[in-house]
Write a structure and sequence with these properties.
The structure holds two protein chains of two kinds. By secondary structure, chain A is an alpha+beta fold. Helix content of chain A is about 45%, strand content about 20%. Chain A is built from six helices and three strands. Classes of the chains: A alpha+beta, B alpha/beta.
């Protein structure tokens, strides 16, 4: 089972949307302290849509590649749609089977974006249990 | 007088396992060790032939079980040079042993404003119980600085201890990340001169160096059975007799009492005062047997062999480009494990890919977040050896690390 496909390595080596937004509507940092992955997501929200996004952080190849791929999906979509996205939406992008050990790596992107949106809406953050779901 | 590692390996059936087509190369021994058949057989024998509850009955089976349990305790006492077997308290693991000290000796003997001194490289099990005491009882923590190689400045320690507010110096005997060995006998002497007690966290040390609690003059010492080829679920707290006698009990229930009425209770004598409920008897017996096995394999020879392996691992890893080794630069000063970082490569990815090839290393902060903060890193990768590892295994591991770096590097 090769986790590190060419697609994932490509996104890891050439991450899309990497960096910071100068005039971000919201910036949110998420950490996975148990392993040392960090992700900061900047969203520019206009007319209830994600007009632009950027992200930066230190983390494993899976977490970084996932955020890069997820970014491609998020650009231009309504915030409401982004908030309704599920783990399988991100995992499908990765295109490989993610076991329980790496689930948080893969879903750090989803978790960070959802909590960025919560922050924008002045709502409490959601827990990992909520993000990963049953 | 070479060490016959292949004869040792034959005693560990799990080493014959494969991961897909790859032979298992288990180099995560600081997390837990594999088990020799002698130890496993002894535990099974207990269940097959001697199983009964200890202390509670006068029938033959209970007597056998009790004798086996007492024998295990004597073996542990002898192994670490304790004066009396009743200075050995069996716990679930080193973490529970540390909690026991914090929640009995700590709660009784420490007043608000008193302090416990810890080094910045301690494992969370030797940090959190004291932080809990800080929250609940208002004690202070004095942090002893370490440099990047894990060296402690003894003058700093003396300065910290001088005001006599520190009542306990609690320190690791061998760092589970840096692989350095604090000078525990000297530290004990410094602590005692300043009116403080000393606790040694020997979780890593116990498998790699001879321990003599009388020589060190340790007040407390803790370790876990599963890190020295024993089963999980058994740990040891050593405490000086007069200290243990002065401490209130930890868990309350059966076996740790002399008498119970509707009004109150009196405690049992040592060590049972601290062993409430049915103990993990087969596990204790397993630990006792692991110690016998370890001694039979040749304690001094084993220590020397593993020290050689660590020095070899250090030298080989040093040749890998973009790889930074943590801890002592002099391999002679190292034991147990070698932890490292690789430029632009996350330990998760490295250990995942190595894991697919059957090579078991560990990634993360290894329960030492303050140390990792000091080192300025989020996570590291750790290779740790045991008696059954070989230089050939280390070669395969280092080659695989180099291959993985080539694969992942941008």
């Amino acid at each position: 089972m090769d986790l590190y496909t060419e697609n994932i390595l490509d996104h890891f080596r050439h991450p899309r949307f990497a960096g910071e937004l100068k005039a971000a509507t919201v910036r949110h940092k998420e950490e996975n302290l148990s392993c040392g992955d960090e992700l900061t997501v900047d969203l520019k929200i206009e007319n209830r849509k994600i007009k632009a996004l950027a992200w930066h952080g230190t983390g494993c190849a899976i977490s970084q590649a996932a955020m890069s791929m997820f970014g491609e999906k998020l650009e231009g979509i309504p915030v409401k749609k982004a908030q309704s996205l599920k783990p399988e939406n991100v995992l499908k992008l990765l295109g490989v089977k993610i076991g329980p050990r790496r689930m948080k790596c893969a879903l750090l992107s989803l978790h960070a974006v959802k909590n960025a949106i919560h922050k924008h809406r002045k709502e409490p953050a959601q827990s990992w249990t909520e993000t990963i779901g049953n | 007088m070479t060490f016959d590692v292949s004869a040792v390996r034959k005693q560990f059936p799990i080493l014959g396992k494969t991961v897909a087509v790859h032979p298992l190369i288990y180099l995560d021994n600081a997390a837990t060790t594999q088990k020799p058949t002698q130890m496993l057989d002894r535990m099974l024998k207990f269940y097959l032939e001697q199983n009964a509850n200890v202390h509670r009955s006068f029938h033959a089976l209970a007597e056998e079980a009790t004798l086996a349990y007492d024998e295990a305790r004597k073996r542990v006492a002898d192994f670490i040079g304790a004066k009396f077997a009743h200075e050995i308290v069996f716990t679930k693991n080193a973490t529970e042993a540390l909690n026991l000290v914090a929640k009995t000796w700590g709660q009784k003997s420490l007043k608000p404003g008193d302090a416990v001194a810890l080094t910045l490289m301690e494992h969370h099990s030797n940090i959190v119980p004291w932080l809990q005491l800080k929250e609940s009882h208002g004690i202070n923590i004095e942090w002893i600085p370490v440099d990047r190689e894990g060296n402690l400045d003894l003058n700093s320690i003396e300065r910290i201890l001088k005001p006599k507010k520190v009542k306990l110096l609690s320190v690791t005997g061998l760092s589970n990340v840096l692989g350095c060995l604090p000078p525990i006998a000297e530290l004990a002497s410094i602590a005692h001169s300043a009116g403080a007690k000393i606790l040694i966290d020997a979780a890593q040390l116990v498998g790699h160096r001879t321990i003599d609690v009388k020589k060190i003059d340790a007040d407390f010492l803790v370790f876990s059975g599963h890190k020295i080829y024993g089963p999980s679920g058994i740990g040891v707290l050593y405490g000086k007799e007069e200290l243990l006698k002065s401490m209130p009990p930890f868990l309350g229930g059966g076996d740790m009492i002399q008498s119970v009425t509707t009004e109150g209770f009196t405690c049992a004598e040592l060590p049972r005062k601290f062993e409430a409920g049915t103990p993990p008897v087969p596990e204790a017996v397993g630990l006792g047997e692991a110690i016998i096995w370890f001694k039979k394999t040749g304690t001094v020879k084993v220590h020397a062999y593993m020290h050689d392996l660590i020095k070899y691992a250090y030298r080989r890893l040093k040749t890998v480009k973009d790889l930074t080794i943590l801890g002592p630069k002099d391999p002679e000063k190292r034991a147990g494990s070698v932890s490292f970082t690789v430029k632009d490569i996350h330990p998760h990815d490295l250990t995942d890919i190595l894991g697919e090839k059957g090579i078991c290393l560990r990634a993360g902060h290894h329960c030492t977040q303050p140390l990792h903060k000091l080192l300025g890193i989020n996570a590291s990768t750790r290779l740790s050896v045991a008696v059954y590892n070989t230089k050939a295994e280390i070669d395969v591991c280092v080659d695989a690390i180099e291959q993985t770096i080539r694969l992942l590097h941008k």
